[in-house]
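Narrative summary of target 7.
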Amino acid sequence: MVKTHGLTHVGLKVVDPERSLRFYRDVFGVVEYFRDETTIQVQGPGPFDVLAFEREPERAGKPGGIEHFGFRLTRPEDIDVAVAEVERAGGRLLRRGEFSPED
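Modeled conformation, tokenized:
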């Protein structure tokens, strides 16, 4: 079993990641800690909470399945163990990114 800090992030499809950042920063005090061309990720308000604002206007605000959620490993170097455990449990790896900001 892989040790995690529990459920730690949720990806939200939004029209404008900058606007979402401003809203959540002003209301909840989140702090930006990662961005690329289509995504802004923020930490807070809890110590391990992460929201990912992902630009996808055609899907923003529409009900349906969850885009994704994440578990934060207590030891980032355990990622290979985590993948092996998922595969052993019947899951499969669809893609593997290189995103791994420092704490």
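The chain has a mean pLDDT of 84.
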